[in-house]
Every structure is written in C-alpha cells, then in structure tokens.
Amino acid sequence: MRITFLLTQSLESPSGLGRYWPLAKELQRLGHSVTILALHHDLPSLKERRLSLEGVHIGYTGQMHVRKSGNDKRYFGPAQLLAVVLRATLGLLWAALRVPTDVYHVAKPHPMNGVAGIIASRLRRKPLFLDCDDYEAASNRFSSEWQRRIVAFFEDHLPRFVSGITVNTLATARRIGRLGYPADRVVVVPNGVDRERFARVDLEKIEQLRQDLDLVARKIVLYLGSVSFINHPIHLLVAALPQVVNMCPDTVALFVGGGEDLGALEAQAQELGIEQHVRFMGRVSPADVPLYYCLADISVDPVYDDSIAAARSPLKIVESLACGVPVVTGAVGEREELLQYGRLGLVTEAGCPDCLGRKIVQLLQDDR
After folding, report:
1. Under a CB-based contact definition with an 8 Å cutoff, are residues 263 and 292 in contact?
2. How many whole angstroms separate alpha carbon 295 and alpha carbon 223?
3. Which of 30, 117, 118, 189 is the most buried if burial means most Cβ atoms within 10 Å?
4. CA distance 8 to 107
5. What is the average per-residue pLDDT within 43-53?
6. Residue 161's Cα: distance from chain center in Å?
C-alpha cells in the first residue's frame, strides 16, 4: 500500500521524530511505500526540502505556524499567521495531489493538513485517516481566543470526514467517542521508539559529555522535552529539587529542551538557591537525545492531574525506558500501566512537588 502522511511539523519536532517517524519506518519495513509531506519549523534555513531516508520519501512544503530557531520560539502576528497558514495549506495540498498514494493519513487534526487532506482525498477519491495524539486546544499556547477556537473546531469536527482514526491513549479514544464517532473505527496506537536510534549510543561520547558538564561522580536527574509550562509543568520538578538535594547532595538536575519558559525556569532555580545543582542545556540536536538519556540516573515527567496529561502518551517515558533509565511521573492517564509494563520507575501524586521529590530520592537511594 502507498501511504501518505500529512504533518504540520518537521521530523525534528517531538511528535514528528518520536511518533510519526518510527511509524513510517515500520510501515516501510513491512513492505509499504511511505511518503511524509510536512511543514518545517525554520523553513528559510532548510537546505534540502525533498529527501529520502531509509526508504521513506520526505517533502517539506511550507513553514510551520510557529518558527523555532535554537532555543527561541517565535509566534507570528495575526496577519502574518494567516498568510503562513494559507501558504502552508496550499503547499501541502499541491504536494498531496501530486504524490502517488492509496491513502492519506492526517497526522494531528490541524487546519492546514486537515483542509489539504479533505480536498486531496475527495478530488482523488482516496480514503482519509486521522491520527490524534493530543488535545491541543487545551494544551497549546495561543495568542488569541480565535486561534484556539479554530484549532478546537478541527479537533472536534475533522473526525466526521475520515474513514478511521488512530489515537495514542484511551483518554483520547473516549473523547473521540463522546463526539459521536463509532468506537469500532478508532484504534489505539501507543507511542513507541525508533529502536535503532536508541541502540546506537556512543559510550565515549557519553563520558565526554559527563566531563564537559562537570557531572563526574554526580547523580543526574533528567528532564528532556519542551520548556513550556502550559504543556509541561517543569516548575514542579524545580520546586522538588531542594528536598532532593538535601537528601542527595551530589544530585544535579539536567534540563534539556528549549521553549518560551526557559528564562522563568532559570529564575526559579536561582530563587530557590539551587543554581549549582542544575544545568540548562536548551534545545539539542535530535541525534544527541539518546546521549542525555543514557547519561542520566533517572528521568522525570512532571504532570498535573488534568485532561492535558491524560491525553498524552509521553514520548519521554518510552524513550527513557528504551535506554534503561527509570522514570518518575504522576499517576495520570496510562502512565502507571506503562511503567508497570516496563518494570522501571515510580508514579506519585500528580501536581505535588513534595511527593515528586520523595519518589526521586527513593530511586536515587535505591540505586546506591
């Protein structure tokens, strides 16, 4: 079968690299022909817009709705955003109409790939499928209410135009069901990992990184992901660190990832007087992500008990487990089941820094 994915992000973005790329690779390995048509987070800097990786055809057709460069994330103004969205939609549509395919699979129910997918599937009379791995009307930061309403409209109404839906959590499957979509046309496909990506880790690079960051003979607690409080309440982890450092003085918390709240996180660490026990790395190359997991003693997925966390199957958990690194997270959604399956890690009360700190200390001390 010839399968075309329509993405509104690049393969360097979390879902692009962590969810859709492994799915595309596995489908290719099973004998299907896979094409990914995507938007890029920094299109002007992109040197090659069409390429083939491990048999998967990739085409970047436009700019994402935000522009990311280094640790900076730039949100477009209303008029500029409208122009970006229009060009991106037309770029995805034009590419979708030209690529040979048997089915289209919209990766996230966004306006740009949603409109392109509906029109292309109707004009070419090809089935259209949808993947929902989040509920972004609640979890994303919007500069205005009308933007949030548009995203919510597509997340709630695009399912009626598709032949089937894949989701990554039971919570999302239930939300789709409440919209009136038939349960027998919804398939749960949890997040996994690209096994080759996490198997090829250079031990010498890990040790060099340990020395460069002055982490020799230190216990390392890792947070790896977006630094955006509306998506990930990382401040819960920083609030837990004084307790951790008091019990395990040789601990250093390593924060890997960029985002709009990086400055606030650094300020919080200074206010708590723990700046000697933290390292802020900013956004790193996707190729280096496995190094940081393998460098750590434990990783942390701080969450609140809310619909945002329940709708997520965190990539940071499955990636950490793939590297054999235990995880501490909140008892929300399917996290406890996921850690029981992997027999690695602990869950605690969500939204409680003291509870989070106690579990981190427990794992660090158990490892001695």
Report:
1. no
2. 12
3. 117
4. 8
5. 91
6. 26
Task: Check pLDDT > 60 for residue 341.
Answer: no
For residue 265, the model assigns a pLDDT of 94
Written as one string, the DSSP assignment of 227-274 is --TTT--THHHHHHHHHHHHH-TTEEEEEE---TTHHHHHHHHHHTT-
Are 88 and 29 in contact, with CB atoms under 8 Å apart? Answer: no
- Rounded CA-CA distance 33/39 in Å is 20
Closest CA relative to residue 22, chosen from 159, 190, 222 = 190
Tokens 């997925």 sit at which residue?
301
pLDDT tens for 201-223 read 888 999 999 999 999 999 999 99
Yes or no: say if 178 and 156 are a contact pair by the CB < 8 Å rule.
no
Q: Say if CB 351 and CB 330 are below 8 A apart.
A: yes
Take residue 216 and report the two structure tokens written for it.
């020799």
pLDDT for residue 67? 84
- Cα gap 119→193, rounded to integer Å: 32
* Burial class of 229 by CB neighbour count within 10 A (0 to 12, 13 to 18, 19+): middle
Q: Give the pairing of strands 50-53 and 56-63.
A: antiparallel
Separation of alpha carbons 151 and 92, rounded Å:
18
pLDDT surpassing 90 at residue 336: no
Angle, CA of 251, 323 and 279, to the nearest 5°? 30
Q: Per-residue pLDDT tens for 121-165?
A: 999 999 999 999 888 877 776 767 887 888 889 999 999 999 999
On whether the CB atoms of residues 291 and 207 are closer than 8 A, the answer is no
